[in-house]
Amino acid sequence: MSLREWIEACSADEVEMEDVIRFDHGDRTFAIYRTEKGDYYASDGYCTHEKVHLSGGLVMGNLIECPKHNGRFDIPTGAAKRAPVCVDLITYPVKVEAGKVFIQI
Question: Which residues are in the Rieske domain (predicted)?
């Protein structure tokens, strides 16, 4: 059994509606999203096509578009949705408590 810990990523109000921010922890980087409905999500930070951080991308509904080649991923599931991306993102559980966003890694 592996132990996964909850890490404080940011303040909930740091992520605007329909936006994404970068969060670095140790030697890893993540993308923290907030959809148009106000839901928070987290994934690995880099596009699986090329090593470009998704925090520079565009959130559209439940999709994140990579800023380099316009590939798209489904934010809640990490599923690759538009070429050139074909490898899914790894996603992480998120919780919001006391105005702070935590991800489980």
Answer: 6-103
